[in-house]
Amino acid sequence: MNYTKGLFVLFQQKLKRLSRYLTVQRPNALEHSLLAKLPVELLQQITNDLPVASAASFSLSCRHIHLLTGTRYLENLATSSHETLVFLKLIERDLQNQILCNSCRKLHRIQDARKYTENGQPFFPVVEPDCLSNDREIMVTQYIHDNFSTAVFKMLMKHYRLFGYDARSRQLLNLVSERVRSHTWGVTLVLNRQAECRISNGSLFTCKRVAFHGKCTGVEPGSMWYWICPHLELERTERPASLRIITSYPSSLEKWSMILHCEKGANIKKTSWDLCSELQQCRYCRTEYKAVFEHGNGCTFKFTITIWKDLGQGPEGEEWKAQLPLEDGLSSPLPIHFHRGEIASVFQ
pTM surpassing 0.70? Predict the structure, then answer.
């Protein structure tokens, strides 16, 4: 409620500034409106019959309406967090530089976008934005990448719709992308990863490349594991020593597999070979992926998986929702159909 009260104080301050200039001749905003012909009592009755959020929004539509309706509709917002959220959603349409964050239940300024990414957090954050903790809870960081932010995604798509591919849009695209990062994975492996985002036909697409390097004979069972999407995962199996991509829904069905290293033996030469999977699709979300395995002499290897996703036009879209686990955890996702290669082709 503190945010609601602060919002009300802000509106009050702005209205007081307006009242100082009541003596100044201003154009009548209702001059050509049918509302100007209604009796004041009828106008107030109409406002009373509106939902709380709509009445508060209507009271701010122009100075003349506000003088007739007063501030009580704004004050009523403080009694309901739901109505406050509805009200913020209504006024967000007219605020070009702000978005409504459903997790934080606040308006976020687009110019402050970096604050709502993992990389933009101070080393010892006093209070972390709820949208970031919520992203981790619903596994956005696993399914997309570590620095991806639902709030910045929403900022990007709103700004792009209003202003096109300008400097701010490019800046926001960089924020939801990820530069090359390298770190150890387990005991013997090194993991490199990179993510790029692009906008095509009004939707956001991502391309993430994840590469494991190391000695194939030193890969322990369970040490190579990675989410592709909520419905597919990569894992290292025990017998035989191999990598495979399996479905996490409806059950562990194997989609692709390969032997991780050549068998040990005195008479067996350590050979090199390359394996490349065909471009594959997820059955339940707009995700495509391709795996490449390179085995060198001396049992060194590099395994690279490239994952392409269509995230849609914003966090409210069905494409985005399909990229996350179902909220109840019990329902079954519905199969979808799309042409093979239409997502990966955005990055060609």
Answer: yes
